[in-house]
Specification:
With 122 residues, the chain is mainly β. It has strands at 3-7, 10-13, 18-25, 33-39, 46-51, 58-60, 68-73, 78-83, 92-99, 111-112, 116-121.
């Protein structure tokens, strides 16, 4: 079956960096637009970043633009999120997403990982 497994979350001080990784199995990875979303306590899940099937295009939420970088390795079937200059407001559970469109919204047919917690202390 399709599996998306995130790793790399943790506790970091404001201004620090973390690198999230999502390992996938059971899907034709290069057929999917891959992305990251996040959900903070009491808030709705929100878009963070997405990358095209070939990796030549990416889009970011305004709140993370210039600080976060999404990348993918189609041979390894992984997608990463490099997060720099982290802020307390970046604290959330981060979810890996496999979808069809390079957009900022998710679809009911998207596939999700279980999430990884990122906590940024001030």
């Amino acid at each position: 079956q399709v599996q998306l497994v995130e790793s790399g979350g943790g506790l970091v001080q404001a201004g620090g960096s973390l690198r999230l990784s999502c390992a996938t199995s059971g899907l034709i990875f290069s057929n999917y637009v891959m992305g990251w979303f996040r959900q903070a306590p009491g808030k709705e899940r929100e878009f963070v970043a997405r990358i095209s099937r070939s990796g030549d295009r990416s889009i970011y939420a305004d709140s993370v633009k210039g600080r976060f970088t999404i990348s993918r390795d189609n041979a390894k079937k992984t997608v990463d999120l490099q997060m720099n200059s982290l802020k307390p407001e970046d604290t959330a559970v981060y979810y890996c997403n496999a979808g069809a469109l390079l957009t900022t919204t998710w679809s009911a047919v998207d596939t999700w990982g279980q999430g990884t917690q990122v906590t940024v202390s001030s």
